[in-house]
Predict the structure.
Amino acid sequence: MKQLAAALLLASSVMAAQAEPVTVGSEPIASFQRLPSQDSFGPFKWRGGLTLTSADERFGGFSGLIMGKDCEDLLAISDRGVWLKASLRYDGENLSGIADAQLAAMLNRKGEPPGSKIAGDAEALTRLKDGSVAVGFESLVRVGRYNLPRDGFAARFQAIPHPKDIDTGPDNGEIEALGELADGRLIAIAESQFGSDGNIRTWAWKGGQTTAFSIARFGDYRVTDLAVLSDGSILTLERRFEPSSLPGMAVRRFAASAIARGAVIAPELLLEATAPLYVIDNMEGIAACQRGGTTRVTLISDDNFNTAVQSTILLQFDYRP
C-alpha cells in the first residue's frame, strides 16, 4: 500500500507540473519615450518592447525574470506561484514578438502547487552557476532551489538557508530581489525593510556566513529586482507605484566589491523614467543576457492581475557602461 501511495503521489505531482501551452498576444511598443521619441538613455539603447496579453487567468503578476541563450529564452515567475516559459523573437536587432509560451505551477517540497496566494508569492528569481534556479518568496519568507535542468517543471522546492533577519520585515515587504555573486554568495534585497537611517537592508551570504549592509534609498523608490553582471556590477530595478504619485522606474548600479559588513552603498543612477512620458508600468523584473556580443537588459512589469488599468510589458535595451 505504501508503494501504491508513493506512486500515486508521484503521478499527481507530475500531472500538477505539466507545462501547458498558452496563447500570448504581443503588441509592439514603438518607443520607450513618448515625446520626443529617442532611443538612447544614458548607457541604455532601446531595442524594442512588447505589451503582452492572454485570456488565461494565470497569466500576469510577473515579479522575477531570467533570460537564456542569445536573449531568446525567457523564464519568469508570478506572485501566484506560476512559471512562465517562452521564446522571444527579433526583427533584426529589435524585439518583435513572443512564441511557444507555457505556464506551469511551481511545486513545493511535497510536489504540490501553492495552496494559497500567500504560499505562492514568488518575487525573486536568479539562475545559479549549476544551471538550476533559486527563488525568493515574500509573504511566507523562504528561499529555495529548483533543479529545472534535471526535472523541468516537476522540480520541487529545495530550501536554501537564508539570514533570519530577512524574516523580520513588514508583511509583504521582505525579500524582493535575489542574485548570485561570482564568489557563490547569494545577495537579497528587501522591499520595505529600512534601517533607522532610512536605507534599504541588504544581505550577502553563503552557508552560515552573512554580510549585512545597506543600500542608500533613492527618493521614494523601492527595489523590486536585481541583475548580477559578468563584470561584477549589480543593477537594481526600482519602482514607485503609489496612488499618490505618478508611476516611476529607476535602474541603479553598484560594484560587488563595495559589499562589506555595515557598509552603506550609494548606487549610481543610470536611468529614471516616469509615466506618462515613458512607457512603463509596475516594473518588477530585470534580467541581463548576451546577444550579438552585447549585454542586453530586459525588464518586465507586474500587472497585479488588474488588466483594466495595468499591463504586462516587456522592455529591452542594449547596455553599454
